[in-house]
Design brief:
Helix 1 (about 100-115) packs across helix 2 (about 130-135), helix 4 (about 160-175) packs parallel to helix 5 (about 200-210) and helix 6 (about 260-270) packs parallel to helix 7 (about 300-315). The longest helix has 18 residues, at about 160-175. This protein has an eight-stranded parallel barrel, surrounded by five helices. Strands 3-2-1-4-5 form a five-stranded antiparallel sheet, with no helix packed on it. Strand 4 (about 45-50) and strand 5 (about 55-60) form a beta hairpin. By secondary structure, the protein is of the alpha/beta class. The protein contains eight helices and 18 strands.
Length: about 375
């Protein structure tokens, strides 16, 4: 297909050439009133209208530049960017994964009340209504395709890899024009410590880069393999990200181990790969109104989460971003139900029904709002 259609950007006419599935705006000079999108000015979004004699498509977009530099940090529109926020599951107590718009708006307000400028969406392609809300909120977003805890067997299966590559295509296409989406993720907590898995990681990162040749997004994956990881040095991976739970899954009931653990991991990461570093998951769990001071208490969660948030915001040489696990308590699947009281993941800063704020909420909020 080769055809020329009329196009308008906020009312200004331009010529659009359509080839195959994609549209390119030929000889386009952006109107003089176009301003860069940023976390400080998220209102700088515009609409592109493409029309034929029989149809019309309106797409909202923002103009901005994100880059990972040789100094090991990322920059938005030329300025160093430091991010701090939360992970969020698209799960609600009453509606499950199907959220009305009012619930999305409320979730966004609660996330911002913590002091977040960053949200990681776990672990699947996100509702585009949510992405549209985030675009104008002053929040940077990490979106990723559906994959959690894959095995080496999965990674060496051509069928599995092909399905994941198709999912990456959908991820790129559905998030492409959302200026808030700065990160594309894949293979959450996969076997990135196995050399046999490296070709699959390479293929995913290379496909994402090929579909985004102008590098409008940074490519990453969340690893749980720590210093054993052998994929973080892949050239197409722009950002190294790690999920770690010191004081919870390891060195249990030992909150004093949290900061030394993260300091050692981030120092290793900056040494092995001169790339930005994101603490993509961290935290402890707490049962509501349990104040006995040990694991599963609000007191213990407050200490662990507070220390990690403080380390994140006060370590600019080592940490470029962080997202606590997780914003809200949520129901877990059957395979983990025997390990979770009430069949819930209790690491949320806020209760599943969004009405109760744990002590850790205030500790993380204080760290984020006092960021230096």
């Amino acid at each position: 297909i080769n055809a020329e259609y009329g196009a308008k950007i906020d009312g200004a006419a331009h010529k659009v050439t359509h080839r195959n599935r994609y549209c390119t705006v030929g000889d386009l000079v952006l109107p003089s009133h176009i301003k860069l999108w940023s976390l400080e000015q998220p209102e700088n979004v515009y609409t592109l209208t493409v029309a034929t004699d029989t149809d019309e498509r309106v797409e909202r977009f923002g103009v901005r530049r994100i880059e990972s530099r040789a100094d090991g940090h990322y920059y938005l529109n030329g300025d160093r960017l430091r991010l701090h926020g939360v992970n969020r599951h698209e799960l609600h107590r009453d509606t499950g994964p199907v959220a009305p718009m009012s619930a999305l708006i409320n979730d966004l307000a609660l996330v911002k009340s913590i002091g977040s400028n960053f949200v990681r969406g776990a672990h699947y392609i996100q509702d585009r209504r949510w992405l549209s809300l985030v675009d104008t909120s002053g929040i940077a977003f990490w979106t990723e395709q559906l994959s959690w805890g894959a095995s080496l067997h999965n990674m060496t299966s051509s069928d599995y890899t092909q399905v994941q590559l198709e999912a990456m295509k959908i991820l790129v296409e559905t998030s492409f024009n959302h200026p808030s989406v700065l990160f594309l993720g894949f293979f959450n907590e996969g076997p990135s410590d196995e050399l046999g898995a490296r070709p699959a990681y390479q293929a995913m990162a290379d496909l994402a880069r090929a579909m985004d040749p102008h590098k409008t997004k940074l490519i990453t994956y969340a690893s749980k393999q720590m210093q054993r990881d052998v994929c973080t040095t892949i050239n197409s991976v722009d950002v190294q990200s790690f999920n770690a739970y010191p004081g919870w899954y390891y060195q249990q009931n030992n909150a004093s181990a949290v900061v030394p653990y993260w300091k050692a991991l981030t120092s290793w990461g900056k040494m092995i790969a001169k790339k930005p570093f994101i603490m993509s998951e961290w935290g402890a769990g707490a049962l509501l109104r349990n104040y006995n001071g040990s694991m599963w208490s609000e007191n213990y969660q407050r200490v662990v989460d507070g220390q990690e948030a403080d380390f994140c915001v006060n370590s600019p040489d080592l940490v470029d971003g962080c997202s606590t696990w997780v914003a809200f308590d949520f129901q877990v699947g059957l395979r983990n139900s025997h390990k979770r009281p009430h069949n819930l993941n209790h690491k949320g800063l806020i209760s599943q029904d969004r009405t109760y704020f744990k002590q850790a909420f205030y500790a993380v909020q204080q760290a984020y709002k006092e960021k230096k």
